[in-house]
Write a structure and sequence with these properties.
Elements: E1 13-22, E2 34-45, E3 48-54, E4 57-63, E5 70-78, H1 80-87, E6 91-103, E7 109-115, E8 123-128, H2 132-137, E9 146-147, H3 156-159
Antiparallel strand pairs: 1-5, 1-8, 1-9, 2-3, 2-6, 3-4, 4-5, 6-7, 7-8
C-alpha cells in the first residue's frame, strides 16, 4: 500500500458534513432497505485512521480535524490482505453494525446503524449534506431522536473504546 499523492485524487478527498442522531426505536420495517454489514476498526484515533469492511469491500479512511459536523476526509480502497495487515495494528475493539440506507422525503438519505456485539441495542442515524447551511437547516423526522452530532461519545472512534453506551 502506498500513500503517494496519486492515491488521494479528487474523487477520494472531500469534506464530510453530517449530523448524527440517537433514535430510541425504528417505527417501520427495515427489510425493504439496502443494507450493509460493516466491521470497522481504528489504526489510530489521533489522527483518525479507520479501516472498514463493508459487504466485501475494504476501505481506508483518514479524517482530519473538524468542528463536529464537518471534517476533511480521505478514502482509498484496500484489498483483503492490506485490510488484514492493518487490522492487526488497530486500537480499541472493532465495531460491528448493520447500516440501512433510508431515503428521506427531502431527497436526502438517512444511514441507520444498528450496532451488534458489546454495543448491541445502540442505534444511530446520520445524514450527509452538501453544505453546512443545509446541515443547519435540516429538520429531522421525529423518529431520529436526539441530535448527538457534537457529542464525542457517539463518534465511532470513541465507540471503539466503549464497553457499552
Amino acid at each position: 500500500m502506498s500513500f503517494g499523492a496519486n492515491n488521494f485524487g479528487a474523487n477520494n478527498y472531500g469534506i464530510e458534513i453530517e449530523r448524527k442522531f440517537l433514535p430510541e426505536s425504528i417505527p417501520f420495517e427495515l427489510s425493504g432497505f439496502e443494507k450493509f454489514e460493516i466491521t470497522q476498526a481504528y489504526v489510530s484515533v489521533k489522527p483518525v485512521i479507520r479501516i472498514r469492511r463493508s459487504n466485501g469491500e475494504f476501505i481506508l479512511t483518514v479524517k482530519g480535524r473538524g468542528d463536529g459536523i464537518s471534517s476533511p476526509e480521505y478514502e482509498m480502497p484496500l484489498d483483503a490482505e492490506e485490510f488484514a495487515n492493518l487490522r492487526g495494528k488497530t486500537e480499541g475493539r472493532p465495531i460491528e453494525k448493520t447500516r440501512y440506507k433510508i431515503p428521506l422525503d427531502c431527497g436526502l438519505t438517512a444511514e441507520l446503524d444498528v450496532y451488534h456485539g458489546r454495543l448491541s441495542g445502540l442505534l444511530t442515524v446520520e445524514v450527509e449534506f452538501e453544505s453546512a447551511e443545509a446541515a443547519g437547516a435540516f429538520i429531522p423526522p421525529a423518529w431520529f431522536g436526539r441530535d448527538v452530532s457534537l457529542d464525542a461519545r457517539y463518534k465511532n472512534s470513541s465507540l471503539a473504546f466503549a464497553d457499552a453506551i
